[in-house]
Amino acid sequence: MYLENITSPADVKRLSIEQLKTLSSEIRTALLGKLSECGGHCGPNLGMVEATIAMHYVFDSPTDKIVFDVSHQCYTHKMLTGRASAFLDSSRYHDVSGYTEPSESPHDNFIIGHTSTSVSLAGGLAKGRDLNGEHYNVIAVIGDGSLSGGEALEGLDWAAELDSNFIIVVNDNQMSIAENHGGLYKNLEELRLSDGTCSNNLFRAMGLDYVYVSDGNDIESLISVFSKVKDVNHPVVVHINTLKGKGYLPAEQDKETWHWSMPFDIATGKLKNEFIGEDYNDLTALHLMELMKRDPKVCAITAGTPGIWGWTPQRREEAGKQFIDVGIAEEHAIALASGIAKAGGKPVAGICSSFIQRTYDQMSQDLCINDSPATILVLWASLASMTDVTHLCHFDIPLLSGIPNLVFLAPTNRDEYLAMLDWSVSYTSHPVAIRVPVGAVKSADRPVATDYSDLNKYEMVHRGKDVAILALGNFFSLGENVCRLLKEKGIDATLINPRFISGIDVEMLDSLTKDHKVVVTLEDGALEGGFGEKIARYLGNTDLKTLCYGAKKQFADRYSVAEFFAENRLVDSMIAEDVLEIIR
Amino acid sequence: MYLENITSPADVKRLSIEQLKTLSSEIRTALLGKLSECGGHCGPNLGMVEATIAMHYVFDSPTDKIVFDVSHQCYTHKMLTGRASAFLDSSRYHDVSGYTEPSESPHDNFIIGHTSTSVSLAGGLAKGRDLNGEHYNVIAVIGDGSLSGGEALEGLDWAAELDSNFIIVVNDNQMSIAENHGGLYKNLEELRLSDGTCSNNLFRAMGLDYVYVSDGNDIESLISVFSKVKDVNHPVVVHINTLKGKGYLPAEQDKETWHWSMPFDIATGKLKNEFIGEDYNDLTALHLMELMKRDPKVCAITAGTPGIWGWTPQRREEAGKQFIDVGIAEEHAIALASGIAKAGGKPVAGICSSFIQRTYDQMSQDLCINDSPATILVLWASLASMTDVTHLCHFDIPLLSGIPNLVFLAPTNRDEYLAMLDWSVSYTSHPVAIRVPVGAVKSADRPVATDYSDLNKYEMVHRGKDVAILALGNFFSLGENVCRLLKEKGIDATLINPRFISGIDVEMLDSLTKDHKVVVTLEDGALEGGFGEKIARYLGNTDLKTLCYGAKKQFADRYSVAEFFAENRLVDSMIAEDVLEIIR
Prior knowledge:
The structure is a homodimer. Chain A is α/β, with parallel strands linked by helices. Chain A folds into 3 domains: 3-256, Rossmann fold (3-Layer(aba) Sandwich), CATH 3.40.50; 280-435, Thiamin diphosphate (ThDP)-binding fold, Pyr/PP domains (Rossmann fold), CATH 3.40.50; 459-583, Rossmann fold, CATH 3.40.50.920. In chain A, 38% of the residues lie in helices and 16% in strands. In chain A, strands 9-8-10-11-13-12 form a 6-stranded parallel β-sheet, with helices on both faces. In chain A, β15 (466-471), α20 (476-488) and β16 (494-497) form a beta-alpha-beta unit. In chain A, α4 (49-58) packs across α11 (219-229), α7 (118-131) packs parallel to α8 (150-159) and α15 runs parallel beside α17 (360-369). Chains A and B meet through α7, α8, α9, α10 and α15 of A and α7, α8, α9, α10 and α15 of B.
C-alpha cells in the first residue's frame, strides 16, 4: 500500500504514473471506508482524487498554496499531506475536520466551508505574495456549483487584472449539490462538447487565459497540464471535466443524493440509520406543494439547496415552474423574491441560517426598504444544528431582527409554524421571515393563532408572578421546563411565547413591572445583538432585572451539543438555579 | 418647449425624432439647472438622456416595467413620467428624490440606491408576471460600473434560464465611479471595438441573447433596437455604448469628478462652496500613503469608491500597486484583504458603512473565522452622514460588532484614530475594523493610547459617581456635553470612552456598581443589536439602570439631521433631562 507511507507531497512525487493510479484506488477505498462510517461529502471527494494527486505531484505545497473552494473535497489533499491515518485508522477518524483547517497542517491555507470564496481568498494570497516580492504558485480550486455565487464571479473578474501567477482550477462535474442552474453552465457544456475550443468562453470573456482538460480523472493529462501552467506569469483557468462520485457506482448514478451522506453500507449504498418520521423539512415542502396547487402565484425559491427543506427531485418536478432553483446565488434569491412579490406573486424563499448571512444587503435593500411581501424561511437555525465552525446557524437573529419593516417570526411548534406560513403567504403589508423550527416535530398543545397582523403581540401562555420567562421559538420547551422546576420551588413563573423576534410587546412587558422581579429571555442563537438584548434594553430603566440566555460570543467548532449547552447554561436546572439566586 | 408639456410617456410617443432630439437638449438644460443648484449624480444622468427617451418612446410604462440599477440615472425618467416640474421649477426641486421611488409614481418599480441589483429585481418582476399569466415587457437597466457586483453577475447567470420576455440594457459608459476595473470590462471594450461582433462575448457566454448599439446617445438607433426587442420571448442583452457626462464638457472630460457633484457654477464647472480644510477622508489617504512608503507590504483596497476616502487619481497613481481598486465588488474586497493578510501583507480596506452591509458573510467567514489580521475601515458611519434611505450609514455596529474574533474600534478624535490605524496595521492577532470618525476633524485634548492589544479596555476619562456616560466614537463629544449639563445640576458624572465596540470592559462596568445608579450609552447608529444593548444585557441583573441612546428602528429617508437627532433624543439637554428624571 502506497497511501500509508505518504507523509507529505514529496512522497507523491516519487511515484510513477502507474503507482499514482494505484494510489488513487487506495484513496477511494479509504474515502469510502471513512465516509461509510462517519458520513460526509461523498461525490465531491470521489471526483477530485486524481486532480488532487496531480496537483501535489506537480506543485510544491506548502510553498505553493492550494485553496479549495468550500473545501468539502479536500479529503484526498489531507491524505497526501500527512493526515492519511485520519482516513485509514478508524480510531483516528476524528483527528481531522471535514474542511481545510490551518491548525491541522501548513498545507491548509484557510478554514473554508461556504461556497464561492476560493478565487478571492487565493487571489489575496497571490497579491500578498507580489507585495512581499515573493515567488510561488497560487492555485484556487473551484467548481461543484460554486461558480454561480457572486463572490466567485467577482473574484474571477478581478483576477484578470492580476499580472502575475494565479492558477484557477475549475472542477466541472456538471453538478451543484443538485443539478446546476444558470446560463454559465450552458457555456461549460459548450466548452466540454468542443474540447475547450468553442469561440464563446466565459473565462476568456472575463479576461482570463484558459486551458481545458477533457478527462479530469486522468492523472497523466492532469499532470501534463498542471506542469505547463506551473510558474505561469499571469492568471489562467484550468477547466477540468470530472465525474462526481467517480469510482462508487451509487454515487455516480445519483449524484444529488450522494453529494453528502450519512453513514452507509458500502455494498448496498443504503443508509445505516435512515431517519423515519416527520421532519420540518418534509413538512415544509409538502405544505408548500399544497399551497401551490391551490394558487399558481405561490412559488418556492432555493439557492442550490433544495434538499435541505424537503424538495426532492420528484417534488421539484411536480411543482414545475413554481419551484425555482437559482443555483448557488443567495443574493439573487432574495432580490428575486422581492421582485416576484412586487409583481403580485407569492414567493417563499428557503435559505439555511448559515447561508442567509450572505444576504444582509439584499434583505435590507432589495426586500425590506421596498417592503415587498415575500416570505423568507430561515432553515436549520439552531445552536443544535450544524456544528462545523463554517456552518454555524447561530447568527441569523442578530443579523435579521434589526432590519426595519421585516416581520421575523419564531414558531414554537408544528401547528404554529404552518399557521404562520399560511398567514405570511397571504400577508401583503411587509416581508416576513420565519425561523423554521428545528428538531423533533411537536404538535401544539394549546390553540394557535391564525392571524399575526397585529404585529409584536406576544402570547401570554401562563400569567404567574415574580419571574417571567420569554421563551423564543425552539427554546419554548426549555422555558416550559424552567417553569416546571421553579414551580417545584414554589415560584409560579409567567411563561411567554414572544412569537415576534423583530419587535417588543411594550404593553405586555410594561404589565410585568407591577408584580415581577426578573425577566428571563431564552433564544436558540447568539446572544450578542439578539432578542434578549432588545428586552434588556427596553427594561433597562425599570426595576425589573433581566437574564438573557443564548450562546456567548464565539466561533464554536465541532462541539458536542450537550456540552455546548451546558457551557452556555442553556439547561433548565442551571437557569432555574440562576433565577432562584437572583430572586432570593 | 416640449419638456414642460410632457405629463406621461404618451406625450413622448407623439414627438418626431427631430422633436425628441430637441427634447433631449431641453432635458440636459434642466438637468444642469437642477444639478448645479442641488448637486447630485451628473455624469450618469447626462449620459442616459437619449436611452431613457427611447425606452419611453418604445415601451409602455407603467405596464411595461423599467428597473434602473442604483437608479442614480433616473432623472430623465422622472421628467418623462409626470415629474418634469421637479427639474424645471426650482421651488419644486425637492418634490422628488434622487432615486426611483414608487411612492412618487407608478412608473417607479423599486426604491434602489445600492448597485448591481436591477437584473435580479427585474428578473423577479418577469418571473412574477409569468406566474400570474400576464404579458408585458420587463427592462433592467444596468451599467456605470455595476456589472462587476456579485449580485448582478448572479442575476445575469440566472436570467438565461428564464424562457420569457426580459430585456437587460447594459449602459456601457466605460466608467465606474472611477475608472472601471475587472476583466469583463476588457470584453466590453472588445465588443465596442468590434461593433458587438467579437467571438468572445460575456453575455452570450452567460447564455443570453445579445444586441449592440454603437452610439447609445443616438435616439434613432436606440428606438430602432428597442423596437426590435420589444415583446421578445426570451432574455436579451442590449449593450449600448454611451458617453458619461454627455453634453457638459467638464463632465465629459473628467468623468470621475463629475460622477456626483456638489452644487456648481455651470459656466466654469467650479463648486459653489468648495470645502476647504482637513477632513477624515484626506487624512486617511495621506496617512496610508506615508505608511505605504515605509512598508511595501501595506496596501489599500477599495471597491469602486476611492474618492470617498481621499484616494484622488494622483494619489492612486503614486501608491501604484499598493492601491487596489477591485471595482464594485465589496465581497471580493473583504476576501481579498483576508488573503493578503494571510500571505503576510498589510491590507487596509476602506468601505462605506452603507456598502459594508454587502459583506457580512465575507467578514464572518473569509476574514474572522480565519482570524486574518487585515484592517477594515468603516467609512462615513454616522446618523449624520448620508440621509437617503438606500444610503443610510446606521447599521454597521449591529452588523459587525457581534462577529467573533473581530476587534471593532471607535476612535473619538483624529489622534486616537491615527493611533488605532497604526496599531491595527502592525497588529497580527485578529482582524480589526475601525469606525472612521465623521464630521469636523478634532485633535485630542488628552493623551492617546498607542497600543490597543489589551482588548476591550475602555478609557476612563473622568471618574465621578451616580451617573456614567459611555460615549462611543462620534458621540464622545455629545457625552462631554451631557456631563457638562449634569455638572450644572450638581451631578459629577463619570465619562467613559469605550473605544472597543465589539467587547465589554467587565472590570470597569463592575466597578461602577458600587457608586453608580445609571449607565447611559451613546452611539452614532441604530440602537437595535448595537453597542448599548450589550451593556444593557451585561448590567441586566445588577441594580444599575441603563439608558441607551441611538437611532430607533426605522428606515429614515431624506431627513433633516437636526430633526432626526431631536426625534431620537440625541441632544445633550434631552439626555440630561432623562438622566435627571431617573436619578431623582
